[in-house]
């Protein structure tokens, strides 16, 4: 049997959305579980991008830096992708068209997929979580997120496609971050136009849902699922 591709998922988006921002996994431990992924850092201070085994944080002040092994994340998802489908795009396309094309290529809408697109972008519009106090509702944090746009920038889209069933654990559909080739610009993707690029789509065989078992506030939290699912739609 071919080796199973595992998605290591620390904590859930629902607990993040309910204001549990305390860092609960060290980046060094996270990277032992995968070389590619997304998340945030303690205090939802920025957008985490894991690419080629390195973790970067894109912060609200428009800087990107490498994250050290002892920094902590409240939420992250990593895998070591196995490319199932590859496709080159050599015409200018909108984010909407590209995402539709990717959705057509999914092996199944019931499977998680890793999504990686390296390309040249005429425009890349991102935002960053600006950091928040523990307990502040994420929808309120989301309302004051800085946004930036770069033009003619080369870089990589890093993220996942999640089946509807797992909305709450993660965000259903696409959750995509970006990092430039020079590692100077990145964030959570809002929209873009791509001049050309190469898609690598990877099927995920297994999801490991890891919990912050020592986080007192998580253990005692009363998660209002209905509200959280709505909040995730609004904020993500
Ligand atoms: Zn994000």
From TrEMBL:
Catalytic reaction list: (2S)-2-acetolactate + H(+) = (R)-acetoin + CO2
Keywords from the UniProt entry: Acetoin biosynthesis, Decarboxylase, Lyase
Pfam families found in the cross-reference section: AAL_decarboxy
GO biological process: acetoin biosynthetic process
Family: Belongs to the alpha-acetolactate decarboxylase family.
The protein's annotated pathway: Polyol metabolism; (R,R)-butane-2,3-diol biosynthesis; (R,R)-butane-2,3-diol from pyruvate: step 2/3
UniProt protein name: Alpha-acetolactate decarboxylase
EC top class named in words: lyase
EC number, UniProt record: 4.1.1.5
The keyword S-adenosyl-L-methionine belongs to this UniProt entry's keyword annotation: no
GO MF terms, alphabetically ordered: acetolactate decarboxylase activity
NCBIfam families reported in the protein's UniProt record: acetolac_decarb
Secretion signal, residue range per the UniProt entry: none
């Amino acid at each position: 049997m071919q080796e199973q591709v595992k998605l290591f998922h620390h904590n859930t988006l629902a607990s993040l959305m309910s204001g549990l921002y305390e860092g609960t996994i060290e980046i060094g431990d996270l990277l032992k579980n995968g070389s590619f992924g997304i998340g945030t850092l303690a205090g939802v201070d920025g957008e985490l991008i894991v690419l080629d085994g390195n973790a970067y944080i894109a912060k609200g002040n428009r800087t990107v830096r490498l994250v050290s092994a002892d920094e902590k994340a409240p939420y992250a998802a990593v895998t070591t992708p196995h490319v199932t489908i590859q496709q080159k795009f050599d015409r200018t396309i909108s984010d909407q068209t590209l995402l539709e094309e990717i959705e057509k290529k999914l092996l199944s809408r019931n499977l998680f997929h890793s999504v990686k697109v390296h390309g040249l972008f005429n425009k890349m519009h991102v935002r960053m979580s600006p950091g928040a106090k523990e307990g502040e509702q994420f929808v309120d944090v989301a309302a004051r997120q800085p946004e930036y746009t770069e033009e003619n920038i080369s870089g990589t889209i890093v993220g996942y496609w999640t089946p509807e069933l797992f909305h709450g654990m993660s965000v259903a559909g696409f959750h995509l971050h970006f990092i430039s080739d020079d590692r100077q610009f990145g964030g959570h993707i809002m929209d873009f136009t791509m001049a050309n690029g190469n898609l690598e789509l990877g099927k995920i065989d297994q999801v490991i849902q890891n919990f912050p078992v020592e986080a007192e506030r998580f253990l005692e939290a009363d998660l209002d699922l209905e509200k959280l699912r709505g909040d995730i739609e609004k904020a993500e």
